Amino acid sequence: FALTILTSCGGESEQKEAESNLKGKDSIVKPDINNIVEPQVTVPTIKIGQEEWMTEDINVTSYNNGDPISEAKSEKQWKDYGNKKLGCYRKLKNGTYVYNGFAVIDERGIVPIGFAIPNYNQFNKLMTFLGGGDSQSGKATKSLATYSIYIEDWVGDQETGGLEDVEIKTNGNSGFKAKKGGFVYDHGAVGNEGNCSYWWTSSYEGQNKIVVDIGYCSQDLGGGKGIYPSTYGFAIRAIKK
Fold this sequence. Notes:
By secondary structure, the protein is α+β, with helices and mostly antiparallel strands. Helix content is 19%, strand content 27%. It has one domain (46-240).
């Protein structure tokens, strides 16, 4: 609509009143940018033993300062980023995000503020608290995983039997909610996608980082343990500081 303000004797006061009414009804109030509060990111966690763990793996595509993490969309790209010692990630077909070790140690940060990448001892305490056992069918693995694990086992007697894939059903009672994972080799190929879960730790042995796993990967007590260079790629699960 069009607002017409008439000016006549005493019109100045009428004009001010009309402008005041207009502002009160139709004007747009600009926000005070100095008082804008940044939204808080809620990170789902579960307390297991004395530690508070995230209930999902990291799936970010940028560092904490907003800089993007390079995505390796091919084996060649993954290998090239590793050779240049640059951080990168890859999303596996099952939805798992894996990061090379250079992204893990990047000073810009990759886990939410207030969280950290667990060391090997913290992972080991988690496994022990949940009952330990081997990484294929132990109590800890059954409690951590939300997917069935298939292991190769001998079925039948010695004469007529043979090796078969046997399903190990898990219960996920811990609330950790480990999902089907996998990893990326230094040359970019994907390994063990679907029947194992792997996570980087913040611990080192020599120049390489320690990685832990559950599933059909190894027979170590309370979860598997491996030593890998930063050119490999694994998932990340964070712990509250």
